[in-house]
Structure to design on (376 residues):
């Protein structure tokens, strides 16, 4: 990868980021600017996760088989000779014009998120230094950690391509993306005093358990998607006409292996895909029941009622889209919405955890500055 291509890629990411940055720049006052920057970065990260799901579900992850460019070029137009040759050799293969553009668009958005996070870090450091380190809500450590985290996410994005969509790498890439979204949601909550409410009695631990269960379920869902096991069971509530179908857990849940292969290099048996699908489906009911119970518990607290209501709505959406992927033979739009619903649940449970644990009682009636929780 030559320096000119890297500069072109960087400028493309900056160009994409200019739209939200202009929206932020128009806001009045530093506090408002910073809060809006956190919000738009969170929004772009959510969109990036949705588009990442679209990239994965359209089998476009290797649309450009190198990284960070496309055949060492900054966009598919400049790599037209290589793409044409690959498409002619394999018209439905991993490299086509549409898949190359989908993959590179995903990378452009990822670069834009990186630019926005750099802007967050620079603003936090600038305010922290200029204030004489007297404004704890602008301690720059969290924003700096975000930059380190997005770099780690970028590394796994590169390994996703260079390791040819190895399932464990792709699944970790998904989980890191959702963790980045969760971190931004936490930062957004800290800089929005109106989110400060009286902590729900006894809600902190149940909310943390709910987030942990959801994380495990998303990991299982990512494992289904990256192993292309979504249609291993095409009936419901049975699977292949059985309550407990024939399954191969050993091969299905061997983490370090190539896509579609066992650790020994043989083709992955269908029973392994069935095991992957069945575990995700079965554990979904555990998570649904727990989150519904958690939402009803939140509804009894005035400060958590709105979050509880949205939890019930999104859980219902997830159940419907999950069933629809089975009955309608995995339509692309519904599969993408299902991924988006998981990201929304992450956002809601992060907000619930913040409100239940760190929003001090009576603080909403105090000054806005005091409403921001201590920054660690």
């Amino acid at each position: 990868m030559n320096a000119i291509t890297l500069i072109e890629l960087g400028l493309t990411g900056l160009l994409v980021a200019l739209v939200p940055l202009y929206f932020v720049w128009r806001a009045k006052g530093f506090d408002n600017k910073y809060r809006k920057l956190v919000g738009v970065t969170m929004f772009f990260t959510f969109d990036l996760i949705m588009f990442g799901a679209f990239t994965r579900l359209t089998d476009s992850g290797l649309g450009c088989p190198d990284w960070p460019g496309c055949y060492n070029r900054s966009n598919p137009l400049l790599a037209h000779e290589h793409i044409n040759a690959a498409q002619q050799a394999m018209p439905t293969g991993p490299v086509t014009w549409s898949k190359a553009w989908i993959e590179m668009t995903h990378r452009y958005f990822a670069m834009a998120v990186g630019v926005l996070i750099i802007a967050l870090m620079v603003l936090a450091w600038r305010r922290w230094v200029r204030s004489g380190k007297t404004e704890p809500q602008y301690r720059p450590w969290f924003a700096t950690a975000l930059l380190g985290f997005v770099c780690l996410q970028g590394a796994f994005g590169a390994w996703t391509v260079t390791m040819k969509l190895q399932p464990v790498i792709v699944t970790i890439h998904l989980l890191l993306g959702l963790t980045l979204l969760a971190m931004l949601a936490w930062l957004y909550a800290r800089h929005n005093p109106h989110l400060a409410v009286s902590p729900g009695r006894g809600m902190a631990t149940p909310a943390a358990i709910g987030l942990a269960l959801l994380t495990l379920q998303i990991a299982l869902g990512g494992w289904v998607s990256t192993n292309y096991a979504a249609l291993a069971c095409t009936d419901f509530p049975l699977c292949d006409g059985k309550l407990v179908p024939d399954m191969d857990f050993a091969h299905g849940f061997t983490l370090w292996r190539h896509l579609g292969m066992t650790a020994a290099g043989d083709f992955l048996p269908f029973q392994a895909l069935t095991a992957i699908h069945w575990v995700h489906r079965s554990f979904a009911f555990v998570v649904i029941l727990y989150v519904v119970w958690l939402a009803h518990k939140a509804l009894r607290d005035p400060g958590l009622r709105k979050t509880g209501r949205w939890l019930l709505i999104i859980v219902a959406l997830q159940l419907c889209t999950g069933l629809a992927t089975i009955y309608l033979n995995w339509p692309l739009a519904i599969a993408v919405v299902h991924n988006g619903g998981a990201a929304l649940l992450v956002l809601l449970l992060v907000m619930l955890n913040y409100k239940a644990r760190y929003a001090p009682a009576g603080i909403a009636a105090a000054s806005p500055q005091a409403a921001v929780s201590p920054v660690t």
